């Protein structure tokens, strides 16, 4: 028996076993009838949830480095999916597991695939994913004033048909608009309610988790902070003035948040070390690396919103002083920073500056709308609307209630997923069908002549069938969790009807519904991201034939 940290024997089977274990654990939560999982907390803050990503994130593997590494890879991919659409991590893992097994069988039994390099198979899968994603977008319906109530249906699916909270989310979006933002917090009471607040959102978070001061939520929250904006990389040349400034603010009992285009490693290290030594030091760094004109304009918008001035380091000739920096600072009532998003709540608006920027947005929007026949302006219009919405502070705080903290935490996970799902649907549109959207599209691709340019060879057709089968497996898992079907034949008949007919089986009503009228809808980006995430997992492992651990592995 050899003693080494290299594993290469039977790695396909070991990966298959590991992925199947992960899939089995999370699959129990899938769908309307999915089971809940109790998550232990050594400090007593136990959680009860059926959120797939939450469950996935709490799984640990002891004394098996390969399984542990694979689990971490799946978690990282699922995190990106959840950030985008709030839901779908369970489906993506189940699909990836099924598809990986299908590919192993093809490599063993299909003469064409036996001699086909894995790299070529992955390239083919990526090509097919792009085509399927495009067809999902074509199939989607945009949300507008005439069908805005669809927001409620999107929310209900994520909330396991909790109509009361779905109505609240719809009501919020009706007031803040489709470009508005919703903050989700635990209610101080047992009631769920919302309040409209002034706020500004940046799609950037802290540069290091050393700045976290709310460990249970992995957030940094600072009350009444000063905010410094910089248009260029902050480095050692700025440290003296900024450290002096921080000392002055510390004496005043105020925190400092620095939002800069970039930071040097030395600059970040200085403040993370100081934060570690003095946990009471209220400091956070947010990297806002704007490279487009729109992002730069948003930076200037933010300066007006907090009534601050950008430290224009890019044109600064002499080293800046602490006094000069002090007079550039903006303020707000509270700042809330997570890994990916920064919320500036209750900015000390300079109304004159803000109104001037709003007027400029309106003027520019009117100008480019005149060019509608000359170029595609949709993206620019969306960006301008987003800037307008941010400056006018369309934010709601949704306070999630419950009898106990465990109940509040459990519901909060669901509400977060629902809000992400609604936000995605408002941006990209929605489709009906849940986990059967992709199988239906593939069935059309395989049967209609118009797609002959896509599926003109046996490899493409075989891979499409494999993707379809894997997606059906996720749907079948959801049906099995309901315990409503007594035989495999009943399941297969139901699935065949759903795919062949223009209808959807609603697990809540236990009836078939027309695809155009059903409430079983979700953001079209959910299906796209589920497929993309599944193939990302496949891409990471299908070409692997060797594993090197940090620890010794006994072969």
How would you concisely characterize the structure shown here?
With 555 residues, the protein is α+β, with helices and mostly antiparallel strands. 52% of the residues lie in helices and 17% in strands. It folds into two domains: 3-141 and 434-554, GROEL, domain 1 (Orthogonal Bundle), CATH 1.10.560; 197-428, GroEL (3-Layer(bba) Sandwich).
Q: What report would you give on this structure?
A:
With 555 residues, this protein is of the alpha+beta class. The chain has two domains: 3-141 and 434-554, GroEL-like equatorial domain (GROEL, domain 1, Orthogonal Bundle), CATH 1.10.560.10; 197-428, GroEL (3-Layer(bba) Sandwich). Helix content is 52%, strand content 17%. The chain has helices at residues 11-27, 52-58, 65-85, 89-109, 111-114, 118-139, 150-158, 163-176, 236-252, 265-277, 293-305, 322-326, 351-369, 378-391, 405-428, 437-447, 458-482, 488-500, 524-541; strands at residues 3-7, 37-39, 47-49, 181-186, 193-197, 199-202, 220-223, 226-234, 256-263, 283-287, 330-337, 342-347, 395-400, 430-432, 503-506, 511-514, 521-523, 547-554. Strands 6, 7, 8, 9, 10, 11 and 12 form a seven-stranded mixed sheet that branches. Helix 9 links the parallel strand 8 and strand 9 (256-263). Helix 4 packs across helix 19 (524-541). It is globular. The N and C termini lie close together (6 Å).
Summed up, the domain count is 2
Mean pLDDT: 85
Work out the radius of gyration: 26 Å
Shape: globular
Number of strands: 18
């Amino acid at each position: 028996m050899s003693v080494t940290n290299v594993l290469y024997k039977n790695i396909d089977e070991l990966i298959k076993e590991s992925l199947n274990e992960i899939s089995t654990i999370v699959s129990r939560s899938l769908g309307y009838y999915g089971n809940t999982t109790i998550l232990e907390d050594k400090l007593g803050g136990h959680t009860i949830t059926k959120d797939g990503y939450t469950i996935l994130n709490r799984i640990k593997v002891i004394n098996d480095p390969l399984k542990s590494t694979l689990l971490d890879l799946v978690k990282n991919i699922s995190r990106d999916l959840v950030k985008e659409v709030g839901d779908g991590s369970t489906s993506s893992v189940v699909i990836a597991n099924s598809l990986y097994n299908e590919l192993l069988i093809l490599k063993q039994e299909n003469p064409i695939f036996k001699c086909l390099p894995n790299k070529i198979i992955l390239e083919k899968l990526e090509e097919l994913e792009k085509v399927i994603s495009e067809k999902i977008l074509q199939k989607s319906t945009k949300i507008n004033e005439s069908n805005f109530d669809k927001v409620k249906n999107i929310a209900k699916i994520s909330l396991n048909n909790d109509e009361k909270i779905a109505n609240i989310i719809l009501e919020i979006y009706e007031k803040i608009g489709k470009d508005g933002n919703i903050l989700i917090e635990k209610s101080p009471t047992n009631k769920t309610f919302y309040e409209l607040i002034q706020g500004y959102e940046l799609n950037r978070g802290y540069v290091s988790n050393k700045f976290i001061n709310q460990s249970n939520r992995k957030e940094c929250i600072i009350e009444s902070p000063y905010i410094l904006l910089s248009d260029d990389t902050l480095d050692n040349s700025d440290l003296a003035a900024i450290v002096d400034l921080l000392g002055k603010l510390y004496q005043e009992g105020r925190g400092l948040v620095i939002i800069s285009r970039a930071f040097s490693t030395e600059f970040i290290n200085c403040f993370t070390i100081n934060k570690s030594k003095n946990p009471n030091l209220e400091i956070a760094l947010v990297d806002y690396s704007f490279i487009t004109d729109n992002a730069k304009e948003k930076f200037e918008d933010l300066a007006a919103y907090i009534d601050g001035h950008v430290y224009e380091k890019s044109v600064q000739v002499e080293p800046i002083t602490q006094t000069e920096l002090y007079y550039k600072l903006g303020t707000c009532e509270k700042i809330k920073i997570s890994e990916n998003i920064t919320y500036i709540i209750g900015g000390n608006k300079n109304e004159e500056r803000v109104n001037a920027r709003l007027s400029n947005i309106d003027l520019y929007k009117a100008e480019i709308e005149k060019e509608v026949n000359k170029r595609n302006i949709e993206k620019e219009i969306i960006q301008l609307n987003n800037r307008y919405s941010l400056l006018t502070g369309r934010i709601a705080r949704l306070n999630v209630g419950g009898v106990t903290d465990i109940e509040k935490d459990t519901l909060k996970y669901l509400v977060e997923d629902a809000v992400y799902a609604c936000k995605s649907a408002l941006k990209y549109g929605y489709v009906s069908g849940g986990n059967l959207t992709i199988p239906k599209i593939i069935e059309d691709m395989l049967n209609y002549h118009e797609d002959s340019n896509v599926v003109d060879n046996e490899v493409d057709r075989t891979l499409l069938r494999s993707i379809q089968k894997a997606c059906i497996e996720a749907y079948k898992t959801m049906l099995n969790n309901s315990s409503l079907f007594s035989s495999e034949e009943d399941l297969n008949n139901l699935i065949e009807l759903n795919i062949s007919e223009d209808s959807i089986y609603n697990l809540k009503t236990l009836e078939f519904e027309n695809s155009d009228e059903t409430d079983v809808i979700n953001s079209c980006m959910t299906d796209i991201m589920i497929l993309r995430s599944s193939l990302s997992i496949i891409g990471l492992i299908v070409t692997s034939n060797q594993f090197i651990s940090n620890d010794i592995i006994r072969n």
